[in-house]
């Protein structure tokens, strides 16, 4: 079954967001299986699509919160939190 256009778009946007993350965030993302990554993208999909449309920093902040909650629930150790200050920070 082919993914819907919005799912494919959300995945593309998620890949751009992951590319913006510091190494710690990128490593946490890479530690997830493809199925877990898809689940995390699905959690953030509406915000990914909105951020893609308007680049509102509030949407990016929600995306980072969703990614943080999603990946820490699926791969708890070590926990990694990413947040938006002036730039994206992961700790």
Description:
- The chain has 91 residues and is mainly alpha-helical.
- Helix content is 69%, strand content 7%.
- The protein has a two-stranded antiparallel sheet.
- Strand 1 and strand 2 form a beta hairpin.
- Helix 1 packs across helix 3 and helix 3 packs antiparallel against helix 4.
- It is globular, with a radius of gyration of 12 Å.
- The protein starts with a helix and ends with a strand.
- The mean pLDDT is 92.
Summary keywords:
globular, mainly alpha, 91 residues, two-stranded antiparallel sheet
Task: Summarize this entry quickly.
The protein has helices at 5-20, 23-30, 34-54, 57-74, and strands at residues 82-84, 88-90.
Q: What Rg is obtained from the alpha carbons, in whole angstroms?
A: 12 Å
Q: What are the low-pLDDT stretches, counting only 5+ consecutive residues below 50? A: none
Task: Spell the H/E element sequence.
Answer: HHHHEE
Distance between the termini: 37 Å
Overall spatial form: globular
How are the strands of the largest sheet arranged?
Answer: 1-2
Q: What structural class do helix, strand and pairing data support?
A: mainly alpha
């Amino acid at each position: 079954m082919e993914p819907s256009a919005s799912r494919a778009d959300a995945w593309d946007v998620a890949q751009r967001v992951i590319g913006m993350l510091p190494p710690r965030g990128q490593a946490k993302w890479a530690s997830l299986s493809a199925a877990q990554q898809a689940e995390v993208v699905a959690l953030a999909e509406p915000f990914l699509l909105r951020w893609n449309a308007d680049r509102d920093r509030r949407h990016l902040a929600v995306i980072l919160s969703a990614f943080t909650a999603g990946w820490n629930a699926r791969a708890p150790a070590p926990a990694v939190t990413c947040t938006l200050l002036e730039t994206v920070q992961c700790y």
